[in-house]
Each structure stands twice: as C-alpha cells, then as structure tokens.
Amino acid sequence: MKLKTKLTLFNAISKLVIVTLFVLLLPSIIENINRNYTDSRLIKQKDKLLQIVKDRGIKTYIEDGQSYGSYLPLKEEYISLDEVEADYYADTIQNERRSVERDTIGYRILSHTFRADNKNYLLEIGKSTETIDDTTGPLQNIAFLILLGMILLTIIADQVYSNYILAPLSRIIRTKLVGTKFPSFTSYSEVKTSTSDFQHLDLSIHKMIETIEHAFQKEREFISNASHELMTPISILQSKIENMFEQEDIADEMKVRMLEMQKILNRLKSITKTLLLISQIENEQFLKEDEISLTDMLQDLYEEISIRLQDKNIGYALALSQDVVLINVNKFLLFNLMFNLVNNAIKYNKPDGSIIVTGERVKNYYTININDTGIGIDADELPYIFNRFKKIKQSLKQDSFGLGLPIVKSIAAFHNIELQVRSEKNVGSTFTLIIPSKLVKQ
User: Fold this and answer.
1) How far is 377 from 302, CA to CA, in rounded Å?
2) Using omega within 30 degrees of 0 as the cis cutoff, is the peptide bond preceding 183 cis?
C-alpha cells in the first residue's frame, strides 16, 4: 500500500472515530445547548418583568392580593406571580410538572422571589419541555450534516495535500528506483522539492547508486580482464601438454596424469569462456540486429541435441501455435539461451522421460514453455538457481559449473525477456520465456 494511501486511510479512520464519538455525544450536547438557551431566555424574561415592576409598580400585574397568570396558546409557556410569605426564598431553574386546565405538563421553570411594596412575591416563568425537545432532533440532524460535510472537506483536503507533499517522494521512487535498470544507470538529476527530508533521501539514493554502479563496473572489469588473461596461460598449458603427448619416451602413468591435467584445463577453459560471455552480455557488447525464425532455430537445436536425447531415450516434442519471426535479437545468444534450457531439461530428466516445447501468443506477448519430466527443483532452492556458481543439490551429481542458468538469465535480461520457473519435486520443471511484442514480427 502506498504511503499517501496509508496517510489518507489513517485520516479517514481518525475522522470516523471523531464522528462516532460526536454522534454518541451529540444528544447530550444538543440537550445542554437547548437547556442553556432556554435558561438564558427565561432569565431575560424575568429581568424584563422585574424592570416593568420597578418602573410601573407591582399593581401592573397584581391588585388587592390576587394572583397573576398568563399562558401562551397551546400552553407552551406561562408566567405566574403570587404573593408568598415573607421568609420564603427561591431562585432556581429546574424541570417541574404543572397541572394546567386538567392537563399535567412538564415545564422548565424559573422560580424567583422579590420584594415590592413591602411584600414578598414569587415569580415563575415556565417553558414546556416538549417544545424544547422538539428542537433537539432538527438541531442534531443539522449538526450531524455539518459535521459530515466538514469531515468530507477535510478528507479531500488531506488527500490533495498528501498528493502535493508526497509528490517528490513518488518522483524519487519512479525515477531513481523503479525507473532505473540495474546495473545500467543514468546521470544524476535532482528532484525539486522544498522538503529537506526528501532532499536528503534523493541525495542519499544518488550516492548509494553511484557506489553500486562503481561496484558493478569493477566486477565487470575484473571478470572481463580475468577471463581474457586466463585464456592465454590455459592455451599455453594445453599446447605444452599436447606436445608432451608426441614424445615417445613418456610412461603410461605420466600420460594418465597428463590426461587428467588436460581435462582440468578444459573445464577451466570452459568456465573462463562462460564468464567472458556473461561479461560481454552484461556490458552489451553484442548487437541485436538479427531476424530469426523461431521454428528454424528450435529445429537446429533439436538436430544438435538429438544424440543426447537418444542416449537417455527422452522424447522431444515441439508445438508452436505459429511460426513466429523474432526481430532485433541476437541469434547466437538466443540459441545459447534455448540450448542451455533444453540441455538442462535433458541433463536432469529421467530415463524414458519427455521434453515438450510449446509456444503461443498471450495478449501482447509470445510465450515459450520448456517442460520436462525430470527430478524437479526443491522449493527452497528455486530463488537461487540463477546465482552464479550456485549448484543446487541435483546438479552436484552432474558435471556442472553452476553457470548455465546465469547465462540464460543474462541473455533474457539483455533482450528484455521475462523468465519464470515452476517446478515440483520428482515431477518436473517448466521454464517460461515471455517475449515482448516489440521482438515479434507482426
């Protein structure tokens, strides 16, 4: 999952938690708001009435000790004013129930005592709790919708800002890592960003790539130079051994030892040539200008390996969906690639086994499968079969240098051909070549 996706997901989840908490707390919050608003309104009404009494006198509401009461329509609000005992005191706001015209109604009631004309009066101002509750639902809905809108806007803002702030990181990954073909490197180009962390990351990756490039180049130079330098003494030693064989006074025991020496030199020469070939491939010293028929190449391959097939009585079948012509390739290298794969299929096959080579178009690619009924490869060894000089358990019983599959991998990478392997122990292996459409003549 991408970093900006994770950030957006985190922001969305955190906001969802906030919304959940808000929804749970919303009823009590709205209830408190309504209650505080109602209390504030009741207090304003009390202050207004007391001011009227102060300006006009208590007789404006009460004459001859009678009570005063006033109800708004539907009994939603009321005001009452009564004379009470001199020692009675009240100054509260609370929910109470009142009986009004045979109806018992719940009110939010402000009770307040005051003195006027040397008498003690009790003022009560009430508002129906039902009307208060009627506004709670709509207020909750409005608050919830506003909250959702704000959350949505912040999520969009977070996404936009995350894309903006992480854009340099995406460019670094795309141009410096994903877009780089190792070990082929390009010159350094700075990614423009005002974020110091990204600037440091960009420069660090560049220095790391320079180090890797230098190490790759040194390795290539060493393999190439060592291979060239080794060929000369090997050839000299082989010539001297061959000249010694022409001498008549050499004992048979010496000839046996010389044959062993010559066999070792041949193995060393083969390894040197193989390393030199890998070095030349990786240094792109081969041209890709050939145009070859896949059927003809596989037929030539069969003619070259037919004797080995007969020795182990292995069946060989070629089944291509059509005769495909490959362009912009190197014929020598591709033949070498196919030869190594089929040769391994013979080497690690069982007597009376079979090898099937198939080819077909799949979307924009052409795939070639080399399937054998051999001894297979252990699952824990599959990731390492293309490593140089890595000899898996099966190859220990064979005359193998551990360089055949590395050559295959290098040639495939040189042609941008994807290489896949499937194998099952004691059942067989399938090597798949996925050839891009640009190498297939239309």
Assistant:
1) 24
2) yes
